[in-house]
Amino acid sequence: MSTLQSSFHGKVMLRKDTERGHRIRVRLAAFTSFFFLATLLAYGASYYRLPLDERPFSVKHALLRPSGTIGLKLGILGTALFIVIFLYALRKVIPWLARIGTARHWMDFHVICGVSAPIVIALHASFKFQGIAGVAYWIMVAVALSGVVGRYLYSQIPRSLTAAELSLNDLQSNEDELSEALLEQSVFSAKRLARILDTPSVEHIRAVWPLLAIVEMLAIDLRRPFQIAALRRSSCDVVGNLRCAGGLLQTSNPEVERIVMLVRQKASLSKRIVFLDHTRRVFNLWHVIHRPFSYAFAALAILHIAVVMGLGFL
Question: What pTM value is reported for the model?
């Protein structure tokens, strides 16, 4: 391996080591949320499928109704999730919060809570969406869906480990390092790699409406895993292809996996550079839409809690 490749590979591995703990925490949080919600849905499925006028006769009604033993606790859990969700915005104005982790780390947990909260609240309400609570719920769903979109856009704007946005010169320098490292490999032909690394021209993207450009960028991201799988398959025999599930999993060849890593980095970086202007523009527009909906939901949720407490349900 050349000095250039060793240097670049070392930087990538250092970054991977730094982020490994965060990825483990994120995956654990996502798995815990999924398992918890799936268990509740499985347990309450027979109750939630009942017509509203038959639910009081169910043995699970005292547990799963909104003011029931489980239903009430789910409402409290949903409120706790909302507090965590809004901490992401508050960390920008509260110094001690800003010192905990990076913005990107907060964003990951912000998204997990934002996706989990609508399901928790749906279970709390036993899938009855009426009055103020119903309006708040559908606004919350809109906020959650827009949050997923925002997380994708955020991930497309290259940042350092401290979440500071990288300059175009930094990006192009990184891209040049990746290009040189790929030129020195001899496992795959340049023609094969070119098909994966191919990105639209800057001129083409500039001429496209921003939202259409984002759709085109998403299509590239959806297509790339299958291109990487085809690249792996071309380096394996029949047995090797079976072991790596047709290229969807890692092969046992470390050199192939090193090149795959470089290809992924180069393809992702080239795409981000080309789409950067449109991504920034749409991300700024997303902020304009996402925040008012979030604040509207927060106001309605507080009103709902106040009404419930005032009526003596808590």
Answer: 0.69
